[in-house]
Design goal:
With 193 residues, the protein is mainly beta. 10% of the residues lie in helices and 49% in strands.
Amino acid sequence: ADRYDELSRKTNKTSKEFEVYHTLNSIDAIEKAFKDGGKAVLTQNIELTKTMTLAKDAKLEIDLNGYELKISNPEKSSARLIKNNGNLTIKNGQLVNEKIYSYGIVDNYGTILVENVKVQDNGSYDGSAIKNRNGKVTVKDTEFTIISSTGYKTDDANKNIKFGNTSVYSDGELVIDNVKITTDSERAYALLV
């Protein structure tokens, strides 16, 4: 706080006007970034076991820096990696969901930009890698790989089919630019709007 007070006197800015920077090298560091907002850079691959939530008025920009942020064994089987209520940017790396029976990776209620990201979603619970719930989603220069699992029987055909999550399901505003979607699901849509 003293450093911000000193800078405030020199620059006529309040401490709230200074950008908060985070180095993301642990789950604790990621939790702090989601709590405080600001700008953050991943410095190693990180595996999460619970959902990270960004508050309604918060703004956070995460540079994955070529690394991978993944959820593989969540405390709740349906947990998503991120619940966004604020303004979130994720860029330059990989988002991975290895939990087979999950609903996806991002649950969006705010504004999110996903740019230059490889998204791999192994979920097969009729969810979506990115679920937009009346918010705004912008996806640019991004590649989705949806990997399905088998073993469910349909009611009408009584055969095994491949279930998989939709890449983006949107009940709100959706902007897509230069996006590649690969899926082997026999049931899920590439996009659902």
